[in-house]
């Protein structure tokens, strides 16, 4: 017998149950509600109302009183009764049919008329997917907007580029941010396309043939098609799938969740880059005044927001395997082994994407750049990068290219030995200045070592990319750009 609760005296019933941290710790209220029982079952009732209205309009013996009764009880769900009915019936849809019928005795005979469980189940899932995208897209737009402002601000600030995580040719802080933006823009288009491609399952019957509705309308095919069209329109969709089995194709779930998994990969890359730059002390995520980085090391400023994003992004990417497996193992018109998996994978994908975008908005609104640290790192590597410029300047001054190359090679290796073996600073420039061979170009050295001569067209690329690709992408979301994120860290 479990007596822990009575011993401690403070543990509530909720504390004795597992709660998904996606809801209890991370996700926004709007996304948590989107996949809630309240949203799900009130949507079921609205779908039954849509069906009754359309059937009545097309001539079935349904009265105004029955429809009004259903509408008046659309929100007052007796969840305890529904749970009790489901325990008895072992069928969630019929449990809610009985619960709805209990408070709508006049309408009871016509609730769910001609429909199958997937009429409410699948259509509700499609509504939740659509509404989930409508929550995510403005959040992604705000992340892109904040990062675009950051890229514009630092478009011409030189910084070391890294390939193989080794110092490479210079880029700019803003140009690097545009690499992140390019991936996010692809995700924006992917999410928008997946959302726009969603159709309604509509009223299709048990195996998708609409046989029950054809019987209800005494063989009138036009009325069956009109019923499908009317209910689809009432649910806010422009189109319904023309063919289904018992369910809509589970490839639709693959399409939706693949766009979210791709977003997860993007966010993981961005936040990994931020973590690497934080280690170099070049860029940091926001850090609250009283935030503690480590219980043992009070000086630490850990990139915990970026780490959270990476952690959750891995989960989002991993969830992609669920719809792929589910779509591949559906037999013929449908098997029920999709159900339990989808109850987990669909909500969790959207909940995970939601908190990732909220956290990333918080990060991008408060990124801190340390130009002096960046400058120091450039100074450490730039003399090596400038050797080709020095050689070309010497040749222009009358020197021999091969002789100059050998001089630079020897001096570079000596400077590298100081850096690697003695832990000293890169003194290549000082060695060049002391060598009489380079006297003809000493007055040019400062110009040859100006970091801005090494960044190519990075500032121009930033300006064009933002104006031609990023800003137009955000235009539909202008009215939603000022929303602030309330983030519980």
TrEMBL record:
Its quaternary organisation is:
Homotetramer. Residues from neighboring subunits contribute catalytic and substrate-binding residues to each active site.
Q: Which GO terms describe its biological process?
A: 'de novo' AMP biosynthetic process; 'de novo' IMP biosynthetic process
Top-level EC class as recorded in UniProt: lyase
The entry's function note states: Catalyzes two non-sequential steps in de novo AMP synthesis: converts (S)-2-(5-amino-1-(5-phospho-D-ribosyl)imidazole-4-carboxamido)succinate (SAICAR) to fumarate plus 5-amino-1-(5-phospho-D-ribosyl)imidazole-4-carboxamide, and thereby also contributes to de novo IMP synthesis, and converts succinyladenosine monophosphate (SAMP) to AMP and fumarate.
Q: What is its EC number?
A: 4.3.2.2
Pfam families in the cross-refs = ADSL_C (PF10397), Lyase_1 (PF00206)
Give the UniProt family note: Belongs to the lyase 1 family. Adenylosuccinate lyase subfamily.
Catalytic activity, per the record? N(6)-(1,2-dicarboxyethyl)-AMP = fumarate + AMP; (2S)-2-[5-amino-1-(5-phospho-beta-D-ribosyl)imidazole-4-carboxamido]succinate = 5-amino-1-(5-phospho-beta-D-ribosyl)imidazole-4-carboxamide + fumarate
Task: Cite the PANTHER family for this sequence.
Answer: ADENYLOSUCCINATE LYASE
Biochemical pathway = Purine metabolism; IMP biosynthesis via de novo pathway; 5-amino-1-(5-phospho-D-ribosyl)imidazole-4-carboxamide from 5-amino-1-(5-phospho-D-ribosyl)imidazole-4-carboxylate: step 2/2; Purine metabolism; AMP biosynthesis via de novo pathway; AMP from IMP: step 2/2
Which SMART domains does the record cross-reference, listed alphabetically?
ADSL_C
Q: Does the keyword Lyase apply?
A: yes
Q: What SUPFAM superfamilies does the record point to?
A: L-aspartase-like (SSF48557)
Please give the GO cellular component terms listed in this UniProt entry.
cytosol
Entry protein name:
Adenylosuccinate lyase
Q: Where is the Adenylosuccinate lyase C-terminal domain?
A: 382-466
Give the source species.
Anabas testudineus (Climbing perch)
Q: Which Gene3D superfamilies match?
A: 1.10.275.60, Fumarase/aspartase (C-terminal domain), Fumarase/aspartase (Central domain)
Which key words tag this protein in UniProt?
Lyase, Purine biosynthesis
| PROSITE patterns on file | FUMARATE_LYASES (PS00163)
Checking InterPro entries in the record gives: AdenyloSucc_lyase_C, Fumarate_lyase_CS, Fumarate_lyase_fam, Fumarate_lyase_N, L-Aspartase-like, Pur_lyase
Q: Which GO terms describe its molecular function?
A: (S)-2-(5-amino-1-(5-phospho-D-ribosyl)imidazole-4-carboxamido) succinate lyase (fumarate-forming) activity; N6-(1,2-dicarboxyethyl)AMP AMP-lyase (fumarate-forming) activity
